[in-house]
């Protein structure tokens, strides 16, 4: 279990694999980076919203979530009523059964926003910006590069096909410009999603017409992505865009802890990374 310095004589221990406690400097980096990255939302006039903390499994099933990512979900359970007396008497919580709630912790910020728009007509288009705590059940964890719980900032668009394309173009330009401002050397590449059936129709379509591009640090850590959903979510959730029919959607996503990692990788230490960030923010 790793520890980080909070103040002279005080150490903050991580809670376990994939569960990192950020010290004050890394916390300042994360907050400052999120503040800087909201500049994309400002440019695109995307208002800030706060998504739900839990997602209904029935809603996620409509989006083929479990077909595509059966291993990622982290379920929300609660103690059954017949365990309450024992727990109050001091019995070990880890030995008590949990009942399903029918909900998962979010694995991406946009799911809650999309589900909140089900059945609506967004007219000529709508943009939303949000940051959320996300959770993924990974096979392994690696510092700030791969976490069980992390923060994801997303700027989401729903509207016309042309609007979705323009949204991602603006997003990619912003990622590139921000990386240059921060002294980050990023590589853009088509995402190779290993969770699709390699012989299935989705995999073939992605090879012919990639829908996700990632921006990665020199060590291969993907810190941002632009994601084109076509009209998949519009059709599945009956979200319309006026005369355009089922809404096309797209999102630009930033993994905040991964941006902290990339800054430290590029500048040598959290302290020097914070100096560079503060200089970039003016």
Task: Describe what this molecule looks like in 3D.
The chain has 282 residues and is α+β, with helices and mostly antiparallel strands. It has a single domain, classed as 2-Layer Sandwich (BirA Bifunctional Protein, domain 2). 36% of the residues lie in helices and 25% in strands. It is built from 11 helices and 11 strands. The strands form 3 sheets. A 6-stranded antiparallel beta sheet has the order 6-7-11-10-9-8, with helices on both faces. It has a 3-stranded antiparallel beta sheet with strand order 3-5-4. Helix 1 runs parallel beside helix 11 and helix 10 crosses helix 11. It starts with a strand and ends with a helix. About 4% of the residues have low confidence.
Fraction of residues in H or I helices: 25-40%
Can you tell me the CATH topology?
A: BirA Bifunctional Protein, domain 2
Secondary-structure-based class equals alpha+beta
Global mean pLDDT: 90
Radius of gyration over C-alpha positions, nearest whole angstrom: 20 Å
Tell me the strand order in the biggest sheet.
6-7-11-10-9-8
Short description:
The protein is 36% helix and 25% strand. By secondary structure, it is α+β, with helices and mostly antiparallel strands. The protein has one domain: 2-Layer Sandwich (BirA Bifunctional Protein, domain 2).
């Amino acid at each position: 279990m790793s520890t980080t310095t909070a103040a002279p004589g005080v150490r903050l221990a991580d809670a376990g694999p994939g569960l990192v406690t950020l010290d004050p400097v890394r916390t300042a980096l994360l907050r400052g980076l999120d503040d800087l990255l909201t500049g994309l939302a400002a440019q695109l006039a995307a208002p800030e919203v706060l998504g739900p903390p839990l997602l209904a499994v029935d809603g996620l099933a409509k989006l083929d979530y479990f077909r595509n990512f059966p291993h990622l979900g982290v379920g929300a359970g609660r103690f059954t009523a017949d365990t309450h007396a024992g727990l109050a008497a001091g019995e070990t919580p880890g030995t008590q059964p949990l009942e399903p709630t029918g909900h998962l912790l979010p694995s991406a910020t946009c799911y809650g926003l999309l589900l909140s728009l089900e059945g609506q007509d967004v007219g000529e288009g709508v943009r939303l910006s949000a940051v959320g705590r996300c959770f993924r059940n990974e096979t392994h964890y690696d510092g700030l590069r791969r976490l069980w719980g992390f923060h994801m900032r997303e700027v989401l668009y729903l509207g016309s096909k042309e609007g979705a394309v323009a949204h991602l173009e603006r997003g990619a330009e912003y990622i590139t410009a921000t990386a240059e401002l921060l002294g980050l050397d990023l590589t853009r590449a088509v995402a190779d999603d290993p969770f699709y059936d390699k012989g299935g129709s989705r995999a073939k379509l992605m090879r012919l017409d990639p829908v996700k591009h990632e921006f990665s640090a020199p060590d291969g850590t993907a810190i941002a992505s632009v994601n084109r959903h076509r009209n998949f979510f519009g059709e599945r959730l009956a979200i319309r865009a006026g005369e355009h029919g089922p809404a096309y959607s797209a999102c630009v996503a930033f993994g905040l802890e991964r941006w902290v990692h990339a800054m430290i990788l590029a500048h040598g230490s959290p302290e020097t990374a914070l100096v560079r960030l503060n200089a970039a923010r003016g």
